[in-house]
Amino acid sequence: METVSFTDMKSGTREDYLLLDRLEQAHVATLPARILEALQRLQGGLAGYRIDRLEHSLQTATRAELDGADSQWIVAALVHDIGDDLAPMNHSEFAAALLKPYVRDEVHWVIAHHGLFQMAYYAHHLGKDPHARERYRDHPYYGSCVRFCERWDQASFDPDFPTQPLSHFEPLVTEIFT
Fold first, then answer.
1. What is the per-residue pLDDT across 149-170, written as a single tens digit (0 to 9) for each?
2. 9, 104, 108, 127: least CB-packed within 10 angstroms?
3. Is this structure's pTM higher than 0.85?
């Protein structure tokens, strides 16, 4: 295996950093496959729901697609909860960070804030503020986030909804993350 010559970054040579750049580019090329694997690991996660997190993600993306959304929205809908396992307290920001280099600002912002916006549906049951999203009322993407949550995310917990399989979305994941 090729390795660099240095043990601290400031001692690296041009050749070291060209090697690392080449290896990083090869690693980046496999990102779509790793995202699909991470989505697959959502299967069976978070007990209590009538469907697992993978099915929820697939339903959300299927609803976006049926609604005529573009590829960025569909993929964002697919990965919006990808952080549930590794970042359960800030899964929205986790997914948004993954998407940021690949999607327009509106899509990134909506995914970053969807967790807060979803609280409108349930926060009152937990003694929390169901109107917390109102602080963003004047933001240009407020309406987009409300629509994302209402039309695609909150509605996607239905075990009887005809959902596309993960393989259906693979070309879009590859398109967006390449």
1. 999 999 999 999 999 999 999 9
2. 127
3. yes
